[in-house]
Amino acid sequence: MQPTAPTSPPKTARLFSAIVVVAALGYFVDIYDLILFSIVRVQSLNTLGITAKDAVTSQGLYLINMQMGGMLLGGILWGILGDKRGRLSVLFGSILIYSLANIANGFVQTLDQYVWLRLIAGIGLAGELGAGITLVSETLSKEKRGYGTMIVATVGVSGAMLAYWVGERFGWRNAYFVGGGLGLALLALRVGVYESGMFEQAKKTQVERGNFFALFTNGPRLVRYLKCLLIGVPLWFVVGILITLAPEFGEALGLTGPVTAGLGVFWSYFGLVFGDFISGSLSQLLRSRTRALQLFLAFCAIMVAVYLFALRGASPTAFYTVCFILGVSVGFWALFVTVAAEQFGTNLRATVATTAPNFARGSVVALVPIFNGVAVALGTPDGPNRIASGAVVGGISLLIAFWAVSTLPETFGKDLDYVEE
Hints:
Layout: E1 2-3, H1 18-47, H2 53-84, H3 87-105, H4 111-125, H5 128-139, H6 145-157, H7 159-170, H8 172-187, H9 197-203, H10 219-231, H11 233-243, H12 246-252, H13 261-286, H14 289-309, H15 316-329, H16 333-342, H17 349-377, H18 383-407, E2 418-419
Antiparallel strand pairs: 1-2
């Protein structure tokens, strides 16, 4: 690493500045759209003439995979642009794309239209969080940036609850229109938001910016990057498997009544609001990102065990209560992205902060077949074997994440004004 060219110190922002507010509201709309399809999946596909249960499941998974594919592509695209063109261009460009895609989703008449628009929406959704966290981290003082990213996440994840409420009460088309309208309205707040001073200084150096492949050409740098990715996997194991498959797990656990994925998502994301607030505050109070993440991963392990082994024959109310607490336990999402951003220099920071969360989200694509494969290896993918498979896959992902956190350098209070060689 080498320091950036010495110029005047980068301008710092207040904790509740326009930068923090816009990043937080942008993430709010981002989460709204990200979760909305899972909530309106059945209703929207039925309207398009897909009514058979198997077809709804298969086509729904196809749409989710297209959205996820868009996010993986968008993560790389926006990350590179964030380091080459600037954090602001990515922040507002991504908001514009997913807002327009949202509005267009409300007009779809065919499955093909729906598929391509979810791909485009996924590309747009990939950029906001990484750009927002990077901009906040670089514009707040090193003593306050943890609080800033905590605000972004706490406000942002509550967008899932609005998505559930709007989707349930106003229909799927109107829900998409609301999401798009919120995003476009947010663009009006761009006045008063300025570019990162660290990025402006990095532009004056001769070092190459936004070279995604530079993450793979240096051994220690690659290991650092992979460890950052692994920290986020347990969260998406919980959301992508335990919560998304809530009806199937409820059946396997012999609950006294049916449960829905929609309410599971609502309660787990409600928990995430509190978890992100607590984890961010804890990292500041302990003056350590590492210890805060270790505590939350241990908490998550306990709650995964409760979900899988302590709910047999329980009521749906007890199940949703555990979903809420499980959501609290994985409320380290912004802390994870903050750590990823703080591990790298200004010329690669946006690339890492944008690709890391999207690749972590994309881990669901690998986790689902692994989960199913383990269940089949244990006998059948139903009943007790599903519980055992969840324990195996969840346990391994948590152990690996704990190792990754424990072996990364501590970044609390780290000076971020440097570039990678």
